Amino acid sequence: MTIVPPPKDAPEGAQSTVEWNLRPTWQRAGLCAGHFVAGCFFAGGLLGLKAQFIRSLTILPPKVVPGAGAAKSKAVATTKAHTGDFGTAVIQNASHPKNTGFEFPLRTSWLEEGRDKTEISLRSSELGSRWFLGLTDASINGKKCVSTDEARSLLLNQWKTIRPPLPASRSKA
Fold first, then answer.
1. N or C: which end of the chain has fewer CB within 10 A?
2. Pairwise CA distance, residues 146 & 144, whole Å
3. Residues with Cβ < 8 Å from 3, sequence gap 6 or more?
């Protein structure tokens, strides 16, 4: 800012004027770069948060040893009992395009209470991550749920048929 005095031949009541000057280029460039970097970090944080919300959860059955009829179902029961292979979970979150997602074994995953009554948290020790599964307007096994309580009970009942209860130290849902 520069203060310019009135000219010498100006009338008696004339006041000085103020002229604004630009800051040096290095200061303006530094401020712009700082704002750009802060915006990139903020956008990255939003993308990271977006990746925690599940869009769809698909449970795939365990791999079965080739066989026929009753032997096949007996092989599945034996696999579950001895190896703890309960199948595979595939989740799609908001960061995934259609037909892609994270795949991990159910033996390393468990359900916990969410941040409030409208969600459940899915955890996996193999991926070391957690995801939030929203229960509002949920559809479980093709059935549209009327309330979050109905969705929660249906999901937990389905989960118990697929995955047996964990020790009390991990099971919180």
1. N
2. 7
3. 16, 17, 18, 19
Q: Which residues contact 135 (CB under 8 A, 6 or more apart)?
A: 117, 118, 119, 120, 145, 148, 151, 152, 155
The count of other CB atoms within 10 Å of the CB of residue 98 is 8
The overall pTM is greater than 0.85:
no
Owner of token pair 């096949």: 72
For the chain, helix, strand, coil in percent to 5 are 35, 25, 40
d(CA 53, CA 135): 11
Question: What does each C-alpha distance from 85 to 27, 67, 70, 76, 80 come to in angstroms?
Answer: 61, 18, 19, 9, 5
> Which residues does 118 contact at the CB level (< 8 Å), separation at least 6?
134, 135, 136, 148
| 3-class state of residue 63 by DSSP | coil
3-state secondary structure of 143: strand
Q: pLDDT by residue (tens digit) across 108-155?
A: 888 888 888 888 888 888 777 888 888 888 888 788 888 888 888 888
Residue 53 and residue 134 in contact, taking contact as beta carbons nearer than 8 Å: yes
